[in-house]
Amino acid sequence: MNTRNVHTVRSPHVLDFVSHSVAQTIRVGQRLGELLQRGDVVALRGDLGTGKTHLVKGIVLGLGSTDTVNSPSFVLINQYRAGAQRGGLPIYHADLYRIERPAELQGVGLEELLDGDGVCLIEWADHAEPLLPDERLDVHLSHLSETKRVVRFAPRGRRYEELIDTLKKAAFN
Questions:
Q1: b vs e for 112-121, b when ≥16 Cβ sit within 10 Å of the residue's Cβ?
Q2: Beta bridge pairs of residue 19
Q3: Running DSSP on this structure, what letter comes out for residue 63?
Q4: By C-alpha distance, which of 86, 28, 18, 15 is closest to 54?
Q5: For residues 52 and 72, which has the higher predicted lDDT (pLDDT)?
Q6: 100 within 8 A of 129, measured Cβ to Cβ
Q7: Residue 166 to residue 91: CA distance in whole angstroms
Q8: How confident is the model at residue 89 (pLDDT cuts 50, 70, 90)?
Q9: How far is CA 46 from CA 4, 26, 39, 119, 164, in A?
């Protein structure tokens, strides 16, 4: 595992697993998406090509959306809508790859989305660290091999600890 990208978290609620394919990464994202609620923040971290956008695709599917998910590298933030069973909940997908300093995020609207009425998914979340809420779900992805990825779900706060405990039961029992 590339420890450079994985922060040490001391919690029995951390979930580590190995994804063996893009399809498996999307499936676990879908399971996570089924559990997310209004106001949740998921901060994704990892090198290029580790599967952050594939995980987001799964999360959006799990929220019941039929929208096409693309990495919003040039527009910074895409918005999708959850399915009718989730009341059309807004899903905000930020990709901060091109951000070099948190000051560049001024006026983009990320802070409003973090406190907003939807689910906020942030790729390259380390680029916005000072803006992120203390309570959130950190997801660290790293290369294990050409097709395998290590995915670490590290909850920060009680809501996210309970979320990961539920995800463990739903996806891995």
A1: ebbebebbbb
A2: 149
A3: T
A4: 28
A5: 52
A6: no
A7: 21
A8: very high
A9: 9, 16, 23, 20, 19
User: What does residue 81 show for φ and ψ, rounded to 5 degrees?
Assistant: -125, 135
Number of H helices, E strands in the chain: 4, 7
The angle that helices 52-62 and 22-35 make with each other, rounded to 10 degrees, is 40
- Bridge-partner residues for 140, per DSSP? 45, 152
pLDDT tens digits along 37-66: 999 999 999 999 999 999 999 999 999 999
Are 99 and 127 a contacting pair, CB within 8 Å? Answer: yes
Residue 45 near residue 37, CB atoms below 8 Å: no
Distances 130 to 24, 63, 91, 171 between C-alpha atoms, Å: 32, 27, 22, 32
pLDDT value at 1 more than 50: no
Mean pLDDT, residues 155-159 taken together: 95
Question: Would you give the DSSP letter of residue 106?
Answer: T
Average pLDDT of span 104-118 = 83
> Any idea which residue has 């399915």 for tokens?
83
Q: Say if CB 171 and CB 55 are below 8 A apart.
A: no
Separation of alpha carbons 25 and 148, rounded Å: 10
Give the C-alpha separation, 80 to 148, whole Å: 28
User: Which residues make Cβ contacts (< 8 Å) with residue 89, sequence separation at least 6?
Assistant: 38, 63, 81, 82, 117, 118, 119
